[in-house]
Amino acid sequence: MKIQVIGLGNVGKSLLGLLLEEEKKLKAKGLDLRIVSISDSKGTAVNENGLELSEVLRYKELGWHNCNYYSKGYSAIDAIKNINSDLVVELTPSTIDGEPGLSHIKEAFVHKKHVVTANKGPLVVAFKQLKNMALENNVYFLYEATVAAHVPIFCLLSSCFITDEILKVEGIFNATTNFIICEMERGFSFQEALDKAIKAGWAETNYADDVDGIDAARKVVILANTIYDRDFKLNDVKIEGIRNVDPLIMEAKKQGKRVKLLCEIIKEHDNIILQVSPKMISQDNPFSTVNYGDMSVKFYFKNSQEIFVSAKFVSPRQTAQAVLNDIVTVALNKKCTG
Predict the structure, then answer these.
(1) Each residue of 272-297: b (16+ CB within 10 Å) or e?
(2) If you average pLDDT over residues 317-337, what whole number do you get?
(3) Fold that domain 155-312 belongs to in CATH
(4) Residue 269 confidence (pLDDT)
(5) 209-229 per-position pLDDT tens digit
(6) Known catalytic residues?
(7) Domain 2-150+317-337 maps to which CATH number in 3.60.10.10, 3.40.50.720, 3.60.15.10, 3.10.50.40?
(8) Which of 131, 228, 268, 320 is deepest in the core (most CB within 10 A)?
């Protein structure tokens, strides 16, 4: 299967590393995954017979200096249009308007290419449109890594609970805020905890989307739209961040409780409530065990009752693993269907 990768940040580089490490295992499954192009913000590296990934990673670190198969100014859109491939992996950063990822995904569908993405932006802006385009062009559109990195969510729902009804979802979907709150529970101020999160690599220097609950809300939108086949947008989510969480943490300590930034999707008849806010929880609540950069989800099913899943998050490698799982899913299904 010929694959194009767009975006070569931390997740993209981790994905290439995983493909190198797991090459023998993938070939043992009968999978021949060839990366034929890799686009970053400045250009595209191309080899339609398959790029040598270790070489690509070395040239990327050198700013593509003396790389004869890297074309500066050759855009990702042009690469999708002109290069023969089966699958586009879209890994550019999430943005408010969904671009440039939104255009990349649409272009891939127009050319009947499958898409795997970790980019939340396009799904928040145009979820229904993208799902419909994928159906119209008979291609796969997988996005496991968009919500809580490698926590198994969409794969779990699509394989284990197809006939059950989801009444409610709770989750800790943002590692940065979880880290900050844990540090504040230890006695650090919000600013001190934030500084520690930045220094430890959990928070970006542009941290507003995390601490204001926007990143978590994007994930709520994607999950709710997937579960209920709706077209919610970011402004459909009631959002409260953690900038003023200190009084709640102090009160929780008095009561012997914890505080978590909880994401909630609540179904009340035909009405669906979406919200993100810091909440006090008891020590026996399973979310109280989810600390620092870890994330989790809890589903409330009509028949299966409560299912809780938690996963440790250490680095972008876990996000890349979720992306790789989606790539393999497409490859295996494509192999089965011819």
Answers:
(1) eebbbbbbbbeeebebeebbbbbbbb
(2) 88
(3) Dihydrodipicolinate Reductase; domain 2 (3.30.360)
(4) 86
(5) 999 999 999 999 999 999 999
(6) 219
(7) 3.40.50.720
(8) 320
